[in-house]
Amino acid sequence: QVQLVESGGGSVQPGGSLRLSCAPSLRISSLSAMGWYRRVDGKQREMVAAISSSGTTEYNDNVKGRFTVTRDNAKNTLDLQMTHLKPEDTAVYYCAADRFDYGFTHPQGDYWGQGTQVTVSP
């Protein structure tokens, strides 16, 4: 079973920055689309940022210009650099990946991480 292990969550003040990392248990080069989703209690999970195996990226309109998603084959990690954080970014962030190419930039969810909490508050 493929595992995705997230790290880097925490608490930060509005305007601050955090970097999330996701380490898969297999070579990242063997995965197709990868990305980050988030969920706030009582709300539907939403796609935050995604990146295809060829490097094409896709962002939620609410994070464009503030978040950057990258995949590093050498480090074997998927990273999410978050800047200018807002209270509404508070959520549990999940790493997701697909083993196969379904034709989308954002992953359909073959594999999911356990989630990491991000809290933005004064």
Helicity range of the residues?
under 10%
Structural Rg? 13 Å
| Count of beta strands | 11
* Quaternary status: single chain
What is the 3D form?
Answer: globular
- Count helical runs: 0
Average of the residue pLDDT scores:
96
Low-confidence residue ranges: none
What's the main sheet like? Answer: 7 strands, mixed
Distance between the termini: 40 Å
The topology string of helices and strands comes to: EEEEEEEEEEE
Present the secondary structure layout:
Layout: E1 4-7, E2 10-12, E3 18-24, E4 34-39, E5 46-51, E6 57-59, E7 67-72, E8 77-82, E9 91-97, E10 111-112, E11 116-120
Parallel strand pairs: 2-11
Antiparallel strand pairs: 1-3, 3-8, 4-5, 4-9, 5-6, 7-8, 9-10, 9-11
What's the short version?
0% of the residues lie in helices and 45% in strands. It is an all-beta fold.
Task: Describe it.
- This protein has strands at residues 4-7, 10-12, 18-24, 34-39, 46-51, 57-59, 67-72, 77-82, 91-97, 111-112, 116-120.
- The protein has 122 residues and is mostly beta strands.
- The strands form 2 sheets. Strands 2, 4, 5, 6, 9, 10 and 11 form a 7-stranded mixed beta sheet that branches. Strands 1-3-8-7 form a 4-stranded antiparallel beta sheet, with no helix packed on it.
- It is globular and about 40 Å long.
